[in-house]
Amino acid sequence: MLGFGIEDTRISFLFKKYLNGTCSKNEAQEIVGIFEDSGNDISLMNEARNQWLTINPENKEDLNTIENHFIMDRILDRLHHRIRLNEEESLLKHSMNKKFFTLFSKVAAILILPLLVYSIYVTSQKSKTGTGSNQVEWQTIKTLAGMQNDFLLPDGSHIWLNSGSVFKYPNSFAKNNRQVELLGEAFFDIKVDTSHPFLVKAGKMNIEVKGTRFNVINYPDEAVTELILESGSVRLFSGNFEDRKTIVTINPGERAVLENKKNYLSVCKVDIEKYLAWKEGILIFRDDQMEEVVKKLNRWFNVEIILQSSELKDYVYTATYKDETLYQILGLLKASAPIDYKIFERIKLNDNSYSKRKIVITKRN
After folding, report:
1. CB 16 within 8 A of CB 82
2. Do 142 and 258 sit in the same domain of this protein?
C-alpha cells in the first residue's frame, strides 16, 4: 500500500484490462476512483514508468536521467492540457458525460506519459565538433509542436523551451565561456559566473550575459529576433566572441528587436509580463494585432489557423488565457469581434500521419 492508495498490482491489472478493452462497468468506475484519489499518484507514476520500460527495457538508465531533469508532475500537467484540447470536440459530438470525460483525459494522460518521456529522450541528440583533444560533444534538445520543456544545464542554469524549439549546448562548457545555440523560443535563468560569460547564438543575434533572466524568440519563420530582459544586464555583440564588438547593452524591462533582413536593431521599454508568462502556461495579449494572435495560438495548440481576409489582420486583441481550450478561446474571439470560424477535420497523409487541424477565421457580416 502507498499512502491511502490501492495496491500497485491492482492498478497494473486494471490498466492491462483498459488497454485490452475488457474493463467491466464496475472496473471502469474503479478506475475513476483511482484517478480521483491523490494517494495513488506515486503508484500511477510507477505504472507509467513500467509501461515505458516494457517498450524500451534497455533504456532504464536513460529514463532515470530524464526523470531528474524533467519533473514528471509538470509534464503531466501539460499533457492534461493537450488532451483537453484534442478531446473537447469528441466530448461535444458524442455528448459524453463530464465524469467520463475527466476519466478519459486522466487515463489517456497516464498511458501516453511514457511515450511523451520517450519522445523527449529520442529528440535529445548528440553531435561532436572539433578534433582530437579539442573535440566537444554537443547535446540537442527539441520540443514537439504544442509542448514545452524545462531542464538544467551543466552549470546549473535553468532553461524553459517553448513549442517547436531546438536548443544546443555542450556536455561540458569551455574554459573561458558557456556557449549555447537557440532556434525557437526559450527563457533563460542563468547562474552567475563572472569569469565565464554565458553566450547565446540566436540566428543573427549574439548575446552575452554573466547571470541574468531573459527571454529570446528566434523562430525561423519570423522576420525578427527578439530579446526581453527581466533582470540583470545583457550585451549584444557582433563578430566572434574573442574579437567581439559591443552593439548595445540591454537593461531590465527592455525589448530588443532585430530585423533579420535589414540588420536593423531597435530597443524600447515594454510590459515584460506578456512576453514571459508563457513559461507559466499563460497566454497574454495586449493590443496585439490578430495576425500575431493567430501565430501564437498556432504554436501553442499545434493547429493551423488562417485569416481569410487581410482586413482581419488589423484587428487588435487584448486578453489573458490560462486554462482555456482552443475552442473556448475561439468562442471568446467571436464574442468580442465581428468574426466567425470554421473547423476542418484532419486529413490523413500518405505516411498515415494526420495534418494539423485547420481553422479558417472569416469576417462576420
Report:
1. no
2. yes
Q: What is the CATH number of the domain that holds 292?
A: 3.55.50.30
- Give how many domains the chain has, as a whole number: 3
Assess whether 54 and 73 both reside in one domain: yes
* Residue tagged 497516464 (cell numbers): 110
- For the chain, give the percent of residues with pLDDT over 70: 65
C-alpha 290/C-alpha 271 separation (Å) is 19
Residue that terminates a domain, selected from 241, 274, 307: 274
SS (H, E, C) 2-43: CCCCCCHHHHHHHHHHHHHCCCCHHHHHHHHHHHHCHHHHHH
Residue 252: exposure state from Cβ atoms within 10 A (0-12, 13-18, ≥19): middle
Q: What is the rounded distance in angstroms from the CA atom of residue 338 to the CA atom of residue 317?
A: 12
Higher local confidence (pLDDT), 37 or 170: 170
* pTM, rounded to two decimals: 0.67
